[in-house]
């Protein structure tokens, strides 16, 4: 018999009652160090006082009015995102997949209204992830995402991540845009060179394409910059955000230049719940914290220290981890010699929550407020767990 909750997840058998900072507590009172952050969502940890205050204050005023009316919070948050990015306009929605699809619609509408309707195709990268809708899985083309859901939507061509020659060769008269994650999260914490990102901008400029960055996971300070593409000193034409923007409250955003999105007029797109007053109050509070002087520099410093510790960890435990520790800022990954789910399970048993990813990687995505002491606590658990796993492998 099917479960009451549709069984689309292989859930761990643990339930959490409450959270505080970088910790979660289950119903027995056991404490876990949360380096999963709800898959990079809880950017400021759990029950951050400024987020709680913003949400509860707004909850006592108004929750929902629909987008038939102006929403004060949308205008404020859009202004802050615009002031701190390349963008000139923002559409608010509820999730990363919705934000990504809004970007896709912007791109297609842009070329349609530019008398180039034949330009509708988008080039994406192998290992990319853009959501679970039919369009987004068609773009990603991963077998685990698309099996059983065909026929896929047309309009997407794929090349290897990090290869500018392949990217250039894939361009045709029908190509409208290139869509890339500046750091692949689900793909295994794959960080390209900055020259690769700069090369994408150059290619788009040369061929008259729009550059579309998916920063759903890497955005809002995760890498030590507000947006990961800023490390390369370039700007896209369109960008989607979600996850950390709401610090745990569902919110997504599609940012674009006026040149790209000036074609989006009333009736071209919409969302019933998108940008509701509750979501905007929380997003505004998240930006309050993340944009405070010194905050992102702190993320960068802690992230660099974390990266060094992870590199040393890999050297100490070659039976469990291989290659180099991956990542940027507080978006880190370890490639495993054994099945990564085995490592994730063992770490959870020892009190550290992590997330699996492709390429047999374990992701470590602590809240951006994590301290050096909490990083040290995580490294201790990783050391202890790796030693246990290595011992088990030796016995077998």
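Sequence proposed for the structure above (396 residues):
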């Amino acid at each position: 018999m099917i479960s009451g909750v549709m069984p689309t997840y292989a859930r761990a058998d643990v339930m959490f009652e409450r959270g505080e900072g970088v910790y979660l507590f289950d119903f027995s009172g056991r404490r876990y160090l949360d380096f999963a952050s709800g898959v990079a969502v809880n950017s400021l940890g759990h029950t951050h006082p400024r987020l709680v205050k913003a949400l509860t204050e707004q909850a006592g005023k108004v929750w929902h009015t629909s987008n038939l009316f102006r929403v004060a919070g949308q205008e404020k948050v859009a202004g802050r995102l615009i002031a701190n990015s390349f963008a000139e306009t923002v559409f608010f929605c509820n999730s990363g997949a919705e934000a990504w699809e809004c970007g896709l619609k912007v791109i297609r509408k842009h070329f349609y209204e530019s008398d180039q309707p034949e330009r509708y195709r988008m080039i994406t990268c192998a290992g990319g992830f853009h959501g679970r809708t039919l369009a987004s899985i068609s773009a990603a083309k991963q077998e685990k995402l698309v099996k059983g859901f065909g026929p896929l939507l047309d309009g997407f061509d794929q090349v290897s991540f990090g290869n500018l020659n392949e990217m250039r060769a894939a361009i045709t008269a029908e190509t409208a845009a290139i869509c890339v994650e500046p750091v692949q999260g689900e793909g295994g914490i794959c960080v390209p060179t900055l020259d690769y990102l700069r090369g994408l901008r150059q290619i788009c400029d040369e061929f008259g394409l729009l550059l579309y960055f998916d920063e759903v996971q890497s955005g809002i300070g995760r890498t030590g910059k507000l947006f990961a593409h800023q490390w390369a000193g370039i700007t896209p034409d369109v960008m989607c955000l979600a996850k950390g923007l709401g610090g745990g409250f569902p919110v997504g955003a599609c940012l674009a230049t006026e040149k790209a999105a000036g074609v989006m007029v009333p009736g071209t797109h919409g969302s019933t719940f998108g940008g509701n007053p509750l979501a905007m109050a929380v997003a505004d509070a998240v930006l309050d914290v993340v944009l405070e002087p010194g905050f992102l520099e702190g993320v960068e410093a802690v992230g660099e220290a974390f990266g060094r510790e992870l590199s040393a960890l890999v050297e100490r435990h070659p039976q469990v981890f291989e290659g180099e520790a991956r990542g940027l800022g507080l978006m880190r990954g370890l490639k495993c010699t054994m099945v990564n789910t085995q490592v994730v399970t063992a770490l959870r048993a020892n009190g550290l929550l992590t997330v699996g990813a492709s390429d047999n990687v374990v992701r470590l995505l602590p809240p951006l407020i994590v301290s050096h002491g909490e990083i040290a606590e995580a490294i201790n658990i990783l050391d202890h767990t790796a030693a246990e796993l290595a011992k088990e492998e030796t016995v077998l």
